[in-house]
Amino acid sequence: MKIDFFNGLLNLDQPRRRYQVKVSMIRKFGSARHLIRPLVFHEIARAGSRLLPMFIFVSIALGLLVIGQSVSWLTRVGAIKYLGTIMVIVVVRELGPLLAGLLVLARIGTANVVELGTARAMGEVEALEALGIDPVHYLVAPRVVGMMIGVFSLTVYLILGALVSGYIWAFLQDVPLRVSDYFRQLAASLSGLDFALLALKTWIFGFIIAIVTCYHGLAQPLHLEEVSSATVRAVAQSVIACVLLDALFIIIYLAV
Questions:
Q1: Residue 7 confidence class, pLDDT cut points 50, 70, 90
Q2: Do the domain assignments include residue 238?
Q3: What is the DSSP string of 62-86?
Q4: pLDDT band, residue 15 (cuts 50/70/90)
Q5: Is the pTM of this model over 0.85?
Q6: Which of 92, 138, 141, 111 is nearest to 228 (CA)?
């Protein structure tokens, strides 16, 4: 959310009744859908589609990394039939969701802290409250929804790109593995639980990142020089929370 919007909000010389109508509409998320929905779409685009080129590059690199390290060893022991299984375990279950969450945190989570922390330091959040606008509904809710959907979508693209590029790199290394056999290995290694836990994990990643970054931007009044330290704290706590959550899902996989 650009700061100029809040500055312009204070300088509008519109009738008082028009302010009261807008205030009464934005107090409740359900009654202000036509105002909140564009903000949600904006956050989905910012945390999703705008990062897609970077995620395509990362997916290609991830496929090369996993295949490059595993093909040589699998070929030596004659276990090339487990290549699809390794891709599922490493990319689908572990590296894909965690890497997607960390990249979104680095690009969008830090921006949340800077934007909200600067707005709080300049008194713009208090200006919204003075107008009767709930900052949680107007500033936090769209970011939470947008980041949850964005992390999930980018994780899917990252995984698909890594699986496809993984086979391409294996083909370039003259691995005796047909396309049909490769995707058959992938299908045999996947289960309904993988899809359910993948969706749940990415949604929780997005929720945690959005809540932590918004909290450090809005929780307490900041001076402008304190925004950078608040950003560092938010990033550190988000990384720790995501890693701990990933460890919990590993335990669930092993238990099931």
A1: very low
A2: yes
A3: HHHHHHHHHHHHHHHTT-GGGHHHH
A4: very low
A5: no
A6: 111
